[in-house]
Amino acid sequence: MLQANKIIAALEKQEITHVVGVPDNGSRTLYEQLWAHDKIEVVFTSREGEAYGLASGLYLGAANPLVLIQNTGFFEAGDAFRGTAYNMGIPLVSLIGYRGYKTMEPGAPRVDTAATFFEPTLKAWNIPYTAMHSDDDIGQIDQAFKKAAETSLPTAVLIVPETT
Amino acid sequence: MLNKYTCLEKLADKRTDELVVTTMSVAMPWATHSDGPLDFAHVESAMGHAADFALGLAIAQPERRVLCINGDGSTLMSLGVLVTMAQRPAANFTLVITETGTYEVTGSQPVPGAGLIDHEQLCRGAGLKRVYTIDNDADFDAKLDQHFSEEGPAVFIWKIAKATEPVPKPSKPIRERAYRLREALTGG
Fold first, then answer.
1. Residues of B in contact with A151 (CB under 8 A)
2. Residue in B with minimal Cα distance to A78
3. What is the C-alpha to C-alpha distance for residues A128 and A147, in angstroms, rounded to an integer?
């Protein structure tokens, strides 16, 4: 189980001001709870590439944003990620939904390329990442922020199960 | 038709402490007027993402006017941002679309739909209310102050005579420009 309220507590600890992105089924509960949050503003973008541009502007403008998207949108966002957050050296953390994770298990009837392309792409784009499978892994969010601050580069935490 | 260089000169003369984000064919002409910490050339960056980048700056800095001077080719690469601008309005945000119908820095090839696109209708269809198309000097002069004062999100579409520009080469690497901008906005 991966609980949205516990992820939000981790974001509060990091004093996140804005969550920028596009919702998916995995992040639905998380977004629903963020909408009701009184200190974190949700900014929906039309496509995930915009999320990286907008979040980069927020950071340079002295806000403290986080990107929340799905892996499918992450692929689309490649040039925006490269040209804004990465090239500008922004310590931006992304939470990225891992669509298709279970289809990589042995015996699965089909494989979702959103899953099989995902981690090789993260590595190719030089993004340090860890994965959250349950509440026990939520501490990885803190570690991702620490790593991003140390390197002045973006990092990611993957959301494997749907948030509840 | 407007002359790009004349428009930029007039805008620069009026500008005080506003943050100005420029893209491809505008970046270097603008830098001849101003190349300080609050001038951010969005080149060596992400194609089509100057407007969302500038919107982020505007949301984070609500007390400061942010102008983004974008090309029509760059705008076409991320049209969805017009909707994002409407659904998350920033009262201090001005978007300028310089419409030449060409990709100036790659040899003036026509952009898709050159001569067919109505940018004002695109913007209004996206939900933006304050949208102005300017195609002559008298109208430009009349609306010059609005670029700084109009409640945002405001969009000004400059109908510009075709021109060519070399590939822009900013005076500093993008990371250095980004850190310089953040330092100017945060005071350290």
1. none
2. B46
3. 8
Please report, as a single letter, which amino acid is at residue B11. L
Residue A94 β-bridge partners: A67, A156
| pLDDT for A140 | 97
The structure's pTM equals 0.97
Alpha carbon of residue B111 to chain centroid: 17
Per-residue confidence (pLDDT) for residue B188, from 0 to 100: 65
Bridge partners of B158? B98, B134
Sequence-distant (6+) residues with CB within 8 A of B93 are B54, B55, B58, B65, B66, B68, B85, B152, B153, B154
Closest-CA residue of chain B to A58: B56
Strands B102-103 and B109-110, sheet pairing = antiparallel
Q: What is the pLDDT of residue B149?
A: 98
Chain B residues lying within 8 Å of A55, measured CB to CB: 56
DSSP letter for each residue of A86-116: ITTT---EEEEE-TTGGGGSTT-SS--HHHH
Residue B168 makes CB contacts below 8 A (sequence gap 6+) with B24, B25, B27, B28, B41, B43, B105
Q: Decide if pLDDT at B165 tops 90.
A: no
Query: H helices of A14-138, where?
Result: 28-35, 48-60, 71-76, 78-81, 113-116, 118-124
Of A20, A58, A87, the CB nearest to B44: A87
Integer Cα distance of A39 and A11 in angstroms: 11
For chain A, give the percent of residues with pLDDT over 70: 100
pLDDT in tens, A96-111: 999 999 999 999 999 9
Mutate to test the interface with A, among B53, B70, B79, B174 (most CBs of A within 10 A): B53
Query: pLDDT digits over B95-135, tens only?
Result: 999 999 988 888 888 999 998 999 999 999 999 999 999 99
